[in-house]
Amino acid sequence: MGVVHSHRSLIGQLSAFEMFMEPEAESVFWTADDWSSARALLGALYPAWWYGCSFVAGPCDDRDGALQMMERCAVTHAFIHSSRLKMLDESDLQPSEHSELKLRTVVCDYLPRPEHRANDDLSVTLNCVYGWPETGWIAGRCERWFKTEIGSIGRPAPGRSIEVIDENGNVLPPREVGRIAIHKSDPALFSEFHNTPQSAARSFVGNWFLTGDVGHKNEDGDLFIHHPLT
């Protein structure tokens, strides 16, 4: 069952891309993710092209090979799935190795264990994001923009309509546990499931699309998940 996005989905993703990737005119992007995934396309490739940045197509077979490729191509920004983040995390590199690496920012999907991080020798900023193929990146952690409470997955990206609701679709106050949902008016929400419109209907409660996760918000808007993501 495929997810159908409209052209507006790309525009709706740009605020999250700017927040978590922090692109600049000379930025060079790369992803370790499958290019057919919504994470790579909507979260990295298409927004990078939108801003006129270069995007490198390169392998991700092992950590050293990936680092060599990023060094050779002067990659500055990367999206790396959390399952592959250990390529940059558990490193035994000597300080003199990969001294020409330009990598500045790594974005990965939500990490249930915050102790995972990019290698200190690389001086890399690690921003974690949360979302689904139907929604794209909707929230995340970005230390340059804001501090979040320990255990939070971050805050909603600008312009994204995320709330915690009850079984009837009512928005819950801070600290109350409910279903994490995104309003149907959200600019980057998917349009339908390919050839299965009835599945989309079952995914909504009133005007709210259910992500399938349960959690709460605190008074500052930090979002918390109450069970492991799959």
Could you characterize what this model shows?
- By secondary structure, the protein is α/β, with parallel strands linked by helices.
- It has a domain at 3-158: Rossmann fold, CATH 3.40.50.
- The protein has 5 helices and 14 strands.
- The protein has helices spanning 8-21, 38-50, 63-72, 86-89, 197-202, and strands at 3-4, 28-31, 54-56, 77-79, 105-109, 125-132, 136-140, 155-156, 162-165, 178-183, 192-193, 204-205, 208-217, 223-225.
- The strands form 3 sheets. The chain has a 7-stranded mixed sheet with strand order 3-2-4-5-6-7-8, with helices on one face.
- β13 and β14 (223-225) form a beta hairpin.
- The chain is globular and about 55 Å long.
- The two termini are 17 Å apart.
Structural class by SSE content: alpha/beta
The overall pLDDT average reads 82
- Biggest β-sheet: count, sense, barrel? 7 strands, mixed
Globally, the shape reads globular
Portion in beta strands: 25-35%
At the fold tier of CATH, the topology name of the domain at 3-158 is Rossmann fold
Q: Architecture of the domain at 3-158, according to CATH?
A: 3-Layer(aba) Sandwich
Number of extended strands: 14
Order of helices and strands: EHEHEHEHEEEEEEEHEEE
Gyration radius (Cα, Å) is: 18 Å
Classified in CATH, the superfamily of the domain at 3-158 is ANL, N-terminal domain
Question: Helical stretch count?
Answer: 5
Helix content: 10-25%
The separation of the N and C termini measures: 17 Å
State the name of the first-level CATH class of the domain at 3-158. Alpha Beta
Unreliable stretches (pLDDT < 50, length at least 5) are 92-96, 113-122
Strands of the widest sheet, in order across it, are 3-2-4-5-6-7-8
